[in-house]
Amino acid sequence: MTAFDWKALSRRLETAAAALAALERADPAAQERLLAERAAALAAVAAAPAGQPAGVEVLAFRCGGERYAFDTAWVTRVLPLLPLTLLPGVPAHVAGITMWEGEVLAVLDLRVLLDLPLSELAEPGALIVLRGEDNRFAVLADAIDGARRFAPEDMGHSLPMLADPDASYLLGVAPDRTALLDARRLLADSTLVVNADH
Questions:
Q1: 58 in helix, strand or coil?
Q2: Dihedral sign of CA atoms 186, 65, 128, 35 in order
Q3: Regarding beta strands 143-150 and 136-141, do their DSSP bridges make them parallel or antiparallel, or are they unpaired?
Q4: d(Cα 87, Cα 154) in Å, to the nearest integer?
Q5: Is 0.90 surpassed by the pTM of this model?
Q6: What ranges do the domains of the chain cover?
């Protein structure tokens, strides 16, 4: 097994985080232009000729005995498991809160959120910090498998848990059964916000 290049992953995540921070500082018209440019660039990558990488770069990880991935555009950082403080009265999918970069960060347990079988639970060893337009939180991961690329044509909806793909957080499934989760939908889901207005 080859050694995982944590420094390269950290550099890619820092670049993505800097781009998101620049987007937040921009005026709304500039944000729209930037998003349109990125959409065009992604469309060009998807249609790239043979020999050039195509698809979406993801961070693959393991959770509850299954393989999952998030588009790296939404991943701010990967951290070792930090101490969690449990909160009374929150939904079961909220594992607790932790301190990161001087800010309180909610930590979600995908094993509970995705209703994974309890027999497959492993002790989490990492946190994946996701950041959206108005929300930031971390999710527990058993282990990090590293960055890879998903080709659009390789993504299908073949897992039994997808009775209703439109109601799930799942974007697709790679041939090796790695499920690409919709980080954008997770970050935009108001039911996952621990302390929105209180």
A1: strand
A2: negative
A3: unpaired
A4: 40
A5: no
A6: 6-192
CA distance 192 to 198: 14
∠ CA 137-83-144, nearest 5°, is 60
Q: Residue with structure tokens 């209180």?
A: 198
Q: What does DSSP assign to residue 156?
A: B
> 103-108 and 136-141 as β-strands: parallel, antiparallel, unpaired?
parallel
Cβ contacts of residue 115 below 8 Å, gap of 6+? 161
- The dihedral sign for the CA sequence 186, 190, 195, 197: positive
pLDDT band at 30 (very low <50, low <70, confident <90, very high): low
CATH number of 6-192: 2.40.50.180
Q: Give per-residue pLDDT as tens, 80-130.
A: 999 999 988 888 889 999 998 888 999 999 888 888 765 555 678 899 999
Task: Give the CB-side neighbour count of residue 113, counting CA atoms within 13 A.
Answer: 21
For residue 136, CA distances in Å to 20, 39, 76, 94, 175 come to 12, 22, 9, 13, 30
Q: How many CB atoms lie within 10 A of CB 75?
A: 25
